[in-house]
Amino acid sequence: MDDVLDAIRDGKPDFAPGVRRRVAFHEAGHVVVTLALGVCRVGSAAITSDGGHTEILQDLTDHTVEGLTAMIAQALAGRIAERLVYGEIRSGSGGSRDSDIALATHVATAIEASFGLGEQGPLYLGEPDRVVGGNAFALVSSAVRARLRMAEETAARALAANSCTFERVAEALARETYLARQRIEELTRDLVKTPVFDWPEEHEPHMGPLQ
């Protein structure tokens, strides 16, 4: 196990206890929300040399609006966990193309601009990354923001319903710095499944006949 931890940390020194604990709560948020919503299976969680990492074993989400919203909630769960515990969020959830916020924005934009599942109905504006960086984003930006907010609420509800499990996973990760799949299963035995929050009525996609 020491060799595994050394590889994870890449030979760099460990974080100060306060920082390690915060990273642990962030990653525990990803773990608990992912399992509570049934988005994917979690292979491991670790505190790494550059922060933390939650390994997703397999995508079990069908590409319905509900399934995709659950995927967004899983991506945003770490920042919501930090807000619940510390009352504020670090910048670590964003800032790069492979960040939590980037993934969440990509999926929310895909719903609205690429998959034909959004407020505009069966409309294709392009690949999500191109839409976000282009003029077409103005057409879907309010719906994308609403989906992100709804996913954050979903994550918050899942964590609130599993507060004891959430704290248990976080404390174990802060102490052990690496949780394998079997260890995660032990820590989440009493997990409460949480449904995806309903789409706000004022933002429901128009499903009537095309005009």
Automatic annotation (TrEMBL):
InterPro entries: Peptidase_M41 (IPR000642), Peptidase_M41-like (IPR037219). GO terms for molecular function: ATP binding; ATP-dependent peptidase activity; metalloendopeptidase activity. Residues 20-186 form the Peptidase M41 domain. GO terms for biological process: proteolysis. It holds the Pfam family Peptidase_M41. Coiled coil: none annotated. This is Peptidase M41 domain-containing protein.
